[in-house]
Specification:
Radius of gyration: 23 Å
Shape: elongated
Distance between the termini: 84 Å
Low-confidence stretches: none
Oligomer: single chain
Strand content: over 45%
Largest sheet: 5 strands, antiparallel
């Protein structure tokens, strides 16, 4: 004795419940994949330091680097895209941890190559210190990435610090 609307409501919400259950199982199926399958970073190193200047009361460094990384191991059926970025980190007297994103790229599942191989890449975003403490600092370059799944939680990955490369900035402005 139910109306059409009550039956339609039951069917639609049953379908949505099944879809939710399948989405949860899909997300759970790939938990831990990123711990076992890491990208292979062949090279991430400074190529040239273009300039180190004081600009508006802050220190700004412009540089280029080489990056060769095989991102194929990080992809699986539930990954839509990877947001990949290079972080320059350094320490100053006023701040213990300074991290600046200097370059980024989105790598999608439909890209057949899934390999980043670029030489002499100029930074998209300058290495800027909010004070004047950038001169003479040891800077580490590290590759990081965010997994963006089709369904499930977003999660991050990063190159181990032991594999990151470092360079020292000059003690005088250039």
């Amino acid at each position: 004795m139910h109306t059409v609307w009550v039956r339609l409501n039951a069917v639609v919400f049953f379908g949505l419940t099944v879809l939710l259950g399948l989405s949860c199982m899909a997300a759970i199926s790939k938990i831990g994949h990123s711990l076992r399958y890491q990208p292979i970073v062949h090279k991430l190193e400074l190529k040239t330091l273009k300039s180190l200047k004081s600009h508006g009361g802050v220190d700004r460094a412009l540089l280029s680097f080489d990056i060769h990384a095989d991102m194929r191991p990080t992809f699986h059926w539930n990954i839509k895209q990877l947001f990949i970025y290079v972080v320059a980190s350094y320490e100053t007297k006023s701040k213990k941890i300074n991290q600046v994103v200097v370059w980024d790229k989105i790598l999608e599942t439909i890209d057949p190559k899934k390999v980043i191989q670029e030489d002499n890449v100029f930074v998209k975003y300058a290495l800027v210190d909010q004070g004047d403490e950038l001169r003479g600092k040891d800077v580490k370059l590290q590759l990081m990435w965010d997994h963006m799944p089709i369904t499930g939680l977003l999660y991050m990955g990063e190159q181990p610090l032991s594999e990151s490369t470092s360079f020292e900035l000059p003690s005088e402005y250039q």
